[in-house]
Amino acid sequence: MSAVLQNYLDAYRRLPEAPQPWLRALQQGALERAEARGFPTSRDEAWKYTSTAILEKRGFAPSAARVEPAAAALDALAIPGFEAARLTFVNGRY
Fold first, then answer.
1. Whose C-alpha in 41, 58, 74, 92 is 20 to 30 A from the C-alpha of 50?
2. Angle at Cα 59 formed by Cα 31 and Cα 38, nearest 5°?
3. DSSP 8-state secondary structure symbol assigned to residue 78
């Protein structure tokens, strides 16, 4: 396993565990597939035209911080007349 992939996996494993069992199962499956496949390269068909050089050079660490946006700020983004369930993600966090 490449050092780059190992760094990403280690950073991900330091995050708090998801509270939902179904989500934990999905995450575990994704981690296992990442370990089995390795870090993508241009030899992988799906990544053939995508450079991963910047991902290899920069260290990204997921944020474990909880962000609670103000309800008024979220209401301002709502589409008038559109009634539906709302899921709010801030920096990729539900």
1. 92
2. 35
3. S
Q: What is the spatial distance between Cα 7 and Cα 13, in angstroms, rounded to a whole number?
A: 10
Q: Is the dihedral of CA 61, 64, 65, 66 positive or negative?
A: positive
pLDDT tens for the chain, 94 residues long, are 788 888 888 888 888 888 889 998 999 999 899 899 888 888 889 989 998 888 888 877 766 666 666 777 777 888 888 888 878 777 777 7
Quick count: other Cβ atoms within 10 Å of Cβ 56?
A: 15
R_g (Cα) of the chain, nearest Å: 18
